[in-house]
Amino acid sequence: MQLKDEGLLKTQCYINGEWYEALSFEHIEIHNPATGELITKVPKMCQKEAEIAIEAANKALPQWKKTPAKERSRLLKQWYALIIEHQDDLATILCAEQGKPLPEAKREIVYGASYIEWFAEEAKRIDGDIIPAPAVHQKALVSKEAIGVCAAITPWNFPNSIVTRKVGPALAAGCTFVLRPASQTPLSALALAELADRAGIPAGVFNVITGTHAIGDTFTRSPIVRKFSFTGSTAVGSQLMAQCAGTVKKVSLELGGNAPFIVFDDADIEAAVKGLVTNKYRNAGQTCVCSNRVYVQSGIYSLFIQKLREAVSQLKVGNGFDPDVIVGPLIDQTAIHKVQEHIQDALAKGALLELGGHPHVAGELFFEPSILSGVTQEMKIAQEETFGPLASIFKFDTEEEVIRYANDTIYGLAAYFFSKDLARIFRVSESLEYGMVGVNTGTLSNELAPFGGIKQSGIGREGSKYGIDDYLELKYTLLSGV
């Protein structure tokens, strides 16, 4: 891993503007999933270090909270500029620890930086209201204030952009922050902390610690932490939410998905195939908003599978640093086993393997881009998130039928459909029980739009003008005698 700026590869944790080892001097090994190579080690911190980081954030809060919004905005813009300046090194770090192809990693860095830029501007747009007073000689005011110390746990699949999507609005609002990135991919977060330090963000405002699950327990149970954010599985999110109940802290959760991808008879088939390939196989299918169930109307079912098979068979699998690679490794053996389990279950229940279906010769954690047809609602893949490079094709006949199938899940994060019928576009968009809907596109995430789901896919929204709301409290003030 060759970096232009070796100072971005940090192997210590960032607390109160300084770099620290774990008190136990224990470490977590970070391996490249494409090669198995040991990249480096990071501290294995625990409850005590989490408490120290929370206290540092709490100490920094009063000054940061009263820092003028324009100054917070300026510092965030400096952070954004440094991220863009060092995007090649940040992408290299991301590719090495997470495995996604280098061009895709570069896109994530730019995408992640966009949240810092966006919320740098939103910092100056946190305003309140003067509302009608209940009596003469009174004035009623509503203001917005930073909620306080925030903490978050972020996942391994987007180790840069999910960090910036949470930290950006918090710092813009005047909150301070403690982050625990995923143990498989902490280096991207530590590099962001280094750049935040260089940007001049004050000590204690942003802290990054790596280590055990005890850190998350400390976050959720601490009375100092007033807002907790988590991106990950529904099972873990539910547990963390329950732990937050004891201190009645504000919670935002972005959890599991089971995205339907619907292709109607009247769709542009070429566009739908292209949209599905982009949606399903980026990051080797390890994306919470990627399609998990592909519903194709009976009139174009066979043709769609043929064209999809042709497109997917062209995808190059390999190390993310190699040229023209589209599909990199999965994160670990557990991920490989889940894809295999879903394929075996589907085949046993009557599905057909159209393409792939086996581990790839590129290495231990690689899996062939795969396609199943004849999938039905009774199969595991219909109810569980696969999180791998497997497209599962269901056949449907009517609009009413596919809406029922699409909504038959506990999840409600993202959904997609392709159609040229304008009336159908409005009907289906309104009928889908999801927080985000992509119409005639396989991608929908950007800093301008609210990201989040409904049902057991989570609570709250990230990004957009709405994304800062979770880091603010409303205060009502009644002035009398005026």
UniProtKB/TrEMBL annotation:
This is NAD-dependent succinate-semialdehyde dehydrogenase. Keywords: Oxidoreductase. GO terms for molecular function: succinate-semialdehyde dehydrogenase (NAD+) activity. The active site is at E254. InterPro entries: Ald_DH/histidinol_DH (IPR016161), Ald_DH_C (IPR016163), Ald_DH_CS_CYS (IPR016160), Ald_DH_CS_GLU (IPR029510), Ald_DH_N (IPR016162), Aldehyde_DH_dom (IPR015590), Aldehyde_DH_Superfamily (IPR050740), Succ_semiAld_DH (IPR010102). GO terms for biological process: gamma-aminobutyric acid catabolic process. Residues 19-476 form the Aldehyde dehydrogenase domain. GO terms for cellular component: cytosol. SUPFAM superfamilies: ALDH-like. It comes from Pelistega suis. Belongs to the aldehyde dehydrogenase family. PANTHER family: SUCCINATE-SEMIALDEHYDE DEHYDROGENASE, MITOCHONDRIAL. The keyword Transmembrane helix does not apply.
